[in-house]
Design goal:
Length: 400
């Protein structure tokens, strides 16, 4: 487990992305090596070996328990999120499940949002109840509903903001304040914003989760996750992670480290591109609605500006059509005509990705659940990349 908060004061974020955790590269190689080994030589002293075998997140013991690159990446991510410590995992869902199972047990209660990333939703809706944990789902935008749902046995409030697919926001300061009064742990999935654009811990949230597959890695070439919080929480999550077996492999960790180096540069371009593209799309006659919290007309603009430092690259929009069927056809036709945005799941890469959520979730949601999640047949989700904005807008102009 690597510590972050105490190192924040010593260097700026951009410098930290390059230099934090350098001490875990114990070689003289400037670019750290890939520690492609499952195991490490035991210390000769049996007492030292016993101690190592019992230690949390060791760098050189057994790769399911940790490795030097993971420690280096953890130092950077903890610092980015203003957390005491961080833990990396094999995927975002590895992080979500380790953090959630470290927070609740049978007989306890969770409050979460009615709309969440679909696999997280499956965890809360289908899995936790099987293990005796009750879950109440509330509107993400309704702080009072969170308060009303709290019971004496509520142990966790789990949030995701901005949330897929309509980029709705939850008021992190308000929800964390009401949880703190009652000793309830709060977890926020910060994947869509990235730590460049939102720091939930500064707003009172206890634990931050990332799918590092997305903006943190930034190149659509790895899967990883991260959990940021107190040292004590991260220890508890690590204990879950090694049992679930969701440890981050050396090569993906190495790629993640490499991706993190340019995080602030990439996000700067992504933020600017997203603002320009959202402004273009909202003024286009063939687009019915654009969901992007930093639009001047967005109902949650003031909350967006108070809790986010920038918009990030996620937005969705609905194409016009006389009926749902026509909207579906128009959305499909747009996907086919666009040259640069790649039609693929996931988000946060250097390339612009576009996806049709209704098709993606067709076999995961009933039509009623899909509609309740705000996914119409004309809805398209966009993860804006770092291409030149003139090419992106030009491409949309032609395709629309
Ligand atoms: N959280 C959010 C908001 C996501 O969008 C995703 C994946 O798309 C995840 C968690 C899960 O991440 P992974 O696919 O890395 O397991």
């Amino acid at each position: 487990m690597s510590e972050g908060a105490n190192q924040n004061a010593k260097m700026k974020l951009e410098t930290g992305l390059i230099h934090l955790g350098d001490e875990f590269n114990t070689t003289s190689a400037v670019a750290p090596p890939i520690w492609q080994t499952s195991t490490y030589l035991a210390p000769e002293d049996p007492a030292a070996f016993s101690e190592l075998a019992a230690s949390i997140n060791p760098t050189e013991f057994y790769s399911r328990h940790g490795n030097p690159t993971n420690a280096q990446v953890q130092a950077i991510i903890a610092s980015l999120e203003h957390a005491e410590a961080a833990l990396v995992t094999a995927s975002g869902m590895g992080a979500v499940s380790a953090a959630v199972f470290a927070s609740v047990k049978a007989g306890e209660h969770v409050v979460t949002q009615k709309i969440l990333y679909a696999a997280s939703m499956i965890l809360f809706r289908d899995l936790l109840p099987k293990y005796g944990v009750e879950v109440t789902f509330v509107e993400a935008t309704d702080t009072a509903a969170f308060e009303k749902a709290i019971r004496p046995n509520t142990k966790l409030i789990y949030l995701e903001t901005p949330v897929n697919p309509l980029m709705t926001l939850t008021d992190l300061k308000a929800v964390s304040a009401l949880a703190k009064k009652r000793g309830i742990t709060t977890i926020c999935d910060n994947t869509f914003a990235s730590p460049i654009n939102q720091r939930p811990i500064d707003l009172g949230i206890d634990v931050v989760i990332h799918s590092a597959t997305k903006f943190l890695g930034g190149h659509s070439d790895l899967t990883a996750g991260a959990i940021c919080g107190t040292k004590e929480f991260v220890k508890a999550a690590w204990r879950m992670m090694i049992i679930f077996g969701s440890s981050l492999a050396s090569f993906d960790s190495w790629l993640l480290l490499r991706g993190l180096r340019t995080l602030s540069l990439r996000m700067e371009r992504i933020n600017a591109n997203a603002i320009a593209l959202a402004d273009y799309l909202v003024s286009h006659p063939n687009i019915e609605t654009v969901h992007f919290p930093f639009l001047k007309t967005h109902p949650q603009l003031s909350l967006a500006k108070s809790q986010m430092l920038g918009p990030s690259g996620m937005m969705s929009f609905e194409v016009r059509g006389e009926s749902e069927e026509e909207k579906f056809d128009n959305a499909q036709s747009l996907l086919k005509k666009l040259r640069f945005p790649k039609n693929a799941v996931s988000l946060g890469g250097v390339e612009t990705l576009i996806v049709h959520p209704a098709s993606m979730w067709r076999y995961h949601y009933t039509p009623e659940q899909r509609k309740a999640s705000g996914i119409g047949l004309g809805l398209i989700r966009l993860s804006v990349g770092i291409e030149h904005i003139d090419d992106l807008i030009g491409d949309f102009r032609e395709a629309l």
